[in-house]
Amino acid sequence: MTYEAQQSPQEKKISVELTWNEALALTGVRFPQNHQLEADAMHKIKKQLEEQLIDRRKNIQ
Predict the structure, then answer these.
(1) Other Cβ atoms within 10 Å of 38 Cβ, number
(2) Which of 18, 30, 37, 40 has the greatest CB tally within 10 Å of its CB?
(3) Does the structure show a pLDDT above 80 at 56?
(4) Are 60 and 44 a contacting pair, CB within 8 Å?
């Protein structure tokens, strides 16, 4: 999926709810017992970005 860079005076923000372990996994902490944590956290972030982009496009049209 390709996204165009948004030029705006203020950075847009999103909110994503992560578990402590998911957040830690994104910082580079490794969890030998659960290699899926980082992938799950990235999936949540990507899903929220896609939802925001879809909502934004609906409002433009």
Answers:
(1) 19
(2) 37
(3) no
(4) no
User: Which helix (H) or strand (E) is 23 found in, with range?
Assistant: helix 20-26
The single residue listed with the structure tokens 């578990």 is 19
Q: Are 41 and 22 in contact (CB under 8 A)?
A: yes
Q: Which helix (H) or strand (E) holds 61?
A: none
Q: Map residue 57 onto helix, strand or coil.
A: helix
Span between the terminal Cα atoms of the chain, in Å: 21
Residue 41 burial (CB count, 10 A): 19
Q: Are 31 and 21 in contact (CB under 8 A)?
A: yes
